[in-house]
TrEMBL record:
Pfam families per UniProt: HAGH_C (PF16123), Lactamase_B (PF00753)
Origin species: Dyella soli
GO BP term (any one): methylglyoxal catabolic process to D-lactate via S-lactoyl-glutathione
Co-factor(s): Zn(2+)
Protein name: Hydroxyacylglutathione hydrolase
Binding of Zn(2+) 1, residues: H53, H55, H111, D128
Family: Belongs to the metallo-beta-lactamase superfamily. Glyoxalase II family.
Gene3D superfamilies, sorted: Ribonuclease Z/Hydroxyacylglutathione hydrolase-like
InterPro entries: Clx_II_MBL, Glyoxalase_II_hydrolase, HAGH_C, Hydroxyacylglutathione_Hdrlase, Metallo-B-lactamas, RibonucZ/Hydroxyglut_hydro
Lineage: Bacteria, Pseudomonadati, Pseudomonadota, Gammaproteobacteria, Lysobacterales
Pathway where it operates: Secondary metabolite metabolism; methylglyoxal degradation; (R)-lactate from methylglyoxal: step 2/2
Length: 254
């Protein structure tokens, strides 16, 4: 399976997955035009659409693509997503015949209450729950819910390639550096991202095992995050540490 990030809107990625036979899946098409262009340029046939959550920058092009290509739209149980043809939830499996693909559906509430992720075919399609070196804002869920969702994703096989919804990695890295300034894996990732972005290349996808070594939101039990939390007056449990991280990231301007 070939995995292609398609830049869209201000800083979104639409994920295009396709096989060598020219059969394709798109994930979170915030607009239709970049998908149509990629399909034409690569000679691909669209066969399915996967949606992770209801935000318009992730579903805005789904209805147009569905009607043009007559394909199924797999989406969470959320009436705000009107383009859905197949509702899926935690523990479900999405099968696509062409390209041959199987994805496990994982409920990951926090960013939104009905947010889901898809894991399979070597990728983790996580929308706005997990970002490289960061995580999504809590628009509908609680810190406890979001931390539990991130724990579930972090427990998946490390070889999975994280395919998230936005190019936020450089900014997230600057915040992460304030939490773990002496983390060599983080320093190496920041250098890699700086080089990629300097050449106008995506910082994604990235291996989940790399995120486990560098992303402070997946490292709430690390000595560095515990020490940072204590310096910021947080002596509580891991949920309190996560909440403090997220609150500080919300106001970070580095």
């Amino acid at each position: 399976m070939h995995v292609v990030p398609l830049p869209a809107l201000a800083d979104n990625y639409i994920w295009l997955l396709h096989d060598d036979a020219g059969q394709a899946i798109v994930v979170d098409p915030g607009e239709a035009a970049p998908v149509e262009l990629a399909l034409r340029q690569r000679g691909l046939q669209l066969r399915a659409i996967l949606l992770t959550h209801h935000h318009q920058d992730h579903i805005g092009g789904a209805e147009d693509l569905r009607s043009r290509h007559q394909v199924p739209v797999h989406a969470p149980h959320d009436e705000r997503i009107t383009s859905a043809t197949n509702r899926v939830g935690d523990g479900d499996v999405v099968h696509v015949d062409e390209p041959a693909a199987r994805f496990d559906v994982i409920a990951v509430p926090g960013h939104t209450m009905t947010h889901i992720a898809y894991a399979g075919e070597g990728v983790l399609l996580c929308g706005d729950t997990l970002f490289s070196l960061g995580c999504g804002r809590l628009f509908e869920g609680t810190p406890a819910q979001m931390l539990a969702s991130l724990d579930r994703l972090a427990a998946l096989p490390g070889h999975l390639q994280v395919c998230c919804g936005h190019e936020y990695t450089a900014a997230n890295g600057r915040f992460a550096q304030t939490i773990e300034p002496h983390n060599p894996a983080l320093a190496a990732r920041q250098q890699q991202v700086a080089s990629l972005r300097a050449h106008e290349r995506p910082s994604l996808p990235v291996a989940l095992e790399t995120e486990r070594a560098t992303n402070p939101f997946l490292r709430t039990d690390s000595d560095a995050v515990i020490a940072w939390s204590q310096r910021h007056g947080v002596d509580g449990d891991r949920v309190a540490r996560f909440a403090a991280l997220r609150a500080n990231k919300d106001v970070f301007r580095g």
